[in-house]
Specification:
Elements lengths: L2 H9 L4 E4 L10 E9 L6 H16 L4 E6 L11 H6 L5 E5 L22 H21 L2 E8 L5 E3 L13 E3 L3 H9 L3 E3 L3 H4 L5 E3 L7 E7 H5 L3 H35 L3 E3 L3 H11 L1 H9 L4 H10 L4
Amino acid sequence: MKLGRRNALKAGAGMAAVVIGAPSIVQAQAVTKLPLATVWPDANFHVVNCRRFADEVKKATGGAIDIDVKSGGQLGFKGPECLRAVRDGLVPIADYLNTQQVGDEPFLGIEGISFLAGSPEELKILQKYLRPEYEKIAAKNNQTLLYVVPWPNQYLHLKIKAESVDALKGIKIRTADKNAQDMWNTVGMAAVVIPWGELLPFLKFFHATNQQWSSDFVAINNDAWKKIKPEHQKAITDVAKKLEPEFWDVAFAADADCSKKMIEGGMQRVTPSAAMMADLRKRTEHLLVDFMKKVPSSQAPIKAYLAEVKRA
């Protein structure tokens, strides 16, 4: 993307106040327009959530805050750039994947630790301990965290049906982040980065391993935030708090719908055996210790979480 476009966003489009046409003797309402950057396509459930959030914010503020969702990366920011883009005021608000920001904030990779959270219920408990740290990281990066929504269950997509960990040896696999790459390399796979759209048509089986999690953050630049009236700030945070649980439901409904469509499209869902899952966990358990050593700030929340789920 041309530098001029980023400068234009920072200088003007990032937070624009326009006045609705009205007779000069009438005090017109100032509308604050906030472009929201996201790399996901229109149909993705995170984008659907963003548009719902924008609509609800507009209603709650009487039209004073107009969030304009820019999907599909149309503002030119790649996923791993979004934390910095919001931090530097290149865009006032963004929806971005936490595990893609580990180059700037390694702590944000916690949810991607193999088998740390084994279910949506455990993820909620984990996030209870992570959320205060997420908010500190946001503040450190000149932004305010509005809401957090997970990507639902993860699957292992393959050309073959794997019935044991040994059957995975040497198979190439697309990974979304380094935690996933480390995990699958640990069990003998060859983890590589391959565009998802190029890979999926050639796969026949999706294995319900649910090995990792990740979440999208929606965060607003603090310089833009401070320009919003306190009553509108409260309206925005109230909307975010109200909708976040509903957005979690949307995420898991989307997962169920996606699984159904994959099966209808000819793919087969595979439920790994208890023995295979136990072997996966055993071979990757050192990755949790490695992460805690590499990111010392992760130790307290992880230990608190493990104590609550009785895995300390």
